[in-house]
């Protein structure tokens, strides 16, 4: 029997070779709360704190793009009370983010159909986007009422309208042109998609954009996700060989 537990070796990340774009499915808040005998909403509050820490850290290490899945088109199926609590946390987060923008200098965008949100929340999202437009550091995209299929349908409809009105040619559509109809227009595809909480699925996240993304899954629940866990994900990514169909 060992007399002492050897500390695991620190993870080696090459900060000069970071992925350009990391996307995270922020999952596991409910289970985190349950494990502690707390209501699920306490897990969402803890998850919001983790988001703040990770987003700030991504900016500090010079990541260009961070996209997070905060609320899916399917999450409306949850009890009204839970949805209400998530929206309340979002409001609190945005108010605080607006107050600290000059300090944080993070550019924020929203992917998803914001129309079912309350007028107040929509206004806060708009203000956040508007004020942070001029910042040039990390761009953080928050997916809110986002679904990959919904995004693709919206793009298809917008393209059909453009064809109907003579602005687009129905016989010619390139991948990059089509990308211009997505919420993610102008943002490069994610290089690395991280899903904590042990689930091994995409759950309707960035279906088009993750065509060649590298995946990193961990059992850690989102509220427990840390900088060290992010380092592990990046180190795993840096050890992969990306071929994009070539050799
Ligand atoms: C992710 O955590 C947050 C949202 C989907 C809004 P969950 O609430 O899905 O947590 P689990 O998966 O039930 O543990
Ligand atoms: C995906 O997590 C959505 C977000 C994290 C916002 P879910 O918890 O909704 O996904 P499923 O239901 O486990 O597939
Ligand atoms: Mg979940």
Describe this structure in words.
- With 247 residues, this protein is an alpha/beta fold.
- Helices cover 40% and strands 14% of the residues.
- It contains 8 helices and 6 strands; from the N terminus they run βααβααβαβααββα.
- A 6-stranded parallel β-sheet has the order 3-4-2-1-5-6, with helices on both faces.
- α2 (40-60) packs parallel to α3 (80-99).
- It is globular, with a radius of gyration of 19 Å.
- The model has no long low-confidence stretch (mean pLDDT 96).
- One 3-methylbut-3-enyl trihydrogen diphosphate binds at residues 25-27, 69-72, 75, 199, 201, 203.
Short précis:
It contains eight helices and six strands; from the N terminus they run E-H-H-E-H-H-E-H-E-H-H-E-E-H. The chain is an alpha/beta fold and 247 residues long.
């Amino acid at each position: 029997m060992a007399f002492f537990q050897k500390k695991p070796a620190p993870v080696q990340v090459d900060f000069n070779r970071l992925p350009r774009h990391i996307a995270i499915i922020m999952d596991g808040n409910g289970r985190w709360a349950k494990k502690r005998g707390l209501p699920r909403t306490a897990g969402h509050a803890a998850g919001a704190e983790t988001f703040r820490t990770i987003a700030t850290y991504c900016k500090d290490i010079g990541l260009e793009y961070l996209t997070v899945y905060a609320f899916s088109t399917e999450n409306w199926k949850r009890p009204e009370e839970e949805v209400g609590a998530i929206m309340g946390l979002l409001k609190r987060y945005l108010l605080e983010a607006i107050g600290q923008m000059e300090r944080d200098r993070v550019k924020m965008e929203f992917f998803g159909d914001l129309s079912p949100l309350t007028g107040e929340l929509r206004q806060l999202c708009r203000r956040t986007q508007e004020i942070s437009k001029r910042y040039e550091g990390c761009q953080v995209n928050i997916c809110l009422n986002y679904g990959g299929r919904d995004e693709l349908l919206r793009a298809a409809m917008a393209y059909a309208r453009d064809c109907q009105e003579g602005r687009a040619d129905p016989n010619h559509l390139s991948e990059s042109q089509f990308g211009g109809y997505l919420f993610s227009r102008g943002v490069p595809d994610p290089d690395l998609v991280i899903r904590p909480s042990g689930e091994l699925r995409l759950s309707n996240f960035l279906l088009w954009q993750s065509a060649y993304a590298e995946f990193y899954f961990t059992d850690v629940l989102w509220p427990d996700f840390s900088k060290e866990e992010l380092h592990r994900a990046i180190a795993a990514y840096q050890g992969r060989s990306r071929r994009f169909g070539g050799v």
